[in-house]
Amino acid sequence: MDKKTVHSDREIFRTRPNKLNTIIWDWNGTLLDDADICVEVENSLLRERGIEPLLDKSRYQEIFGFPVIDYYRRAGLSFETESYQAIADIYINRYTERSRACGLFPDARAALESLNAMGFRQVIISASHSGLLLDQIRPFRIENYFDYIIGQDDAYAHGKKEAALRWMRDCGIDNKTTVLVGDTTHDYEVACALGCGCVLVRNGHHSRERLEKCGCHIADSLTEAVNNISNLCLKNT
User: Fold this and answer.
1) Is the separation of the CB atoms in 62 and 207 below 8 Å?
2) Distance, CA of 176 to CA of 74 (rounded, Å)
3) What's the predicted TM-score (pTM) here?
């Protein structure tokens, strides 16, 4: 997405040295509440192949991760008779259809509005295919909150670290003024690679227990995540 023109007062906020001014959002499981759909789709693939299903969200949160091919193996898929790409294509098609029923987390819009009012540059960087990402975002009419919306060139969810590093380099973003908000340990790994702050929300694709091992801020909701970011801003004043 092309960079938008922003008001001068927001630009002043963003360019103050050593002040937090940029939020990198994850999409799936952070703003979009889609973990339950992911469990349903994965269970359907397992049942069709005679494999015991994941059963519930708690089990899913314990084994999901990136790259997704490794998660598939932990779920019980071996790729001896079907390729990863073939199974992933089935998953993606089913997920794309069923995800139309997904909504944002209840406090997502308010969180975006709060950070927008505070003057933050907001960006989405996702491991999802860019086409699917935009198709999922448009119905919620929240595009105007974001300066950039960045997805991947394919749908196989290898991760997003390289895309995030490239965006920060190309746009000259200062990692010391940036916070990544996500819901998985992969988001924390991306934040570490970027050298930026990180707040993880426990309502998505990883359990709180897994997130706590990262040692960063853990929030029970997006509202709490925004409060954490506000507190970080106060510490940097």
Assistant:
1) yes
2) 36
3) 0.89
Structure-token pair, residue 101 = 């029923």
SS3 121: strand
Query: In total, how many domains does the chain have?
Result: 2
> What is the structure's pLDDT at 11?
39
Q: Could you identify the residue written with the tokens 């001068």?
A: 8
Report the pLDDT value the prediction gives residue 18, as an integer from 0 to 100: 52
Predicted local confidence at residue 94, as pLDDT: 97
- Are 160 and 117 members of one domain? yes
Q: Given CA atoms 11, 108, 142, 183 in this order, what sign does their dihedral have?
A: positive
Query: Could you tell me if 157 and 51 lie in one domain?
Result: no
Integer Cα distance of 203 and 184 in angstroms: 10
H or E segment to which residue 119 belongs: none
Q: Which residue has the tokens 């950039």?
A: 148
Segments in the chain below pLDDT 50: 1-17
Residue 3 lies in a domain: no
Question: CA dihedral defined by 219, 210, 128, 153, rounded to 10 degrees?
Answer: 120
Q: Is residue 177 located within the same domain as residue 125?
A: yes
Nearest to 124 by CA among 150, 159, 163: 150
- Tokens representing 173 are 């973003």
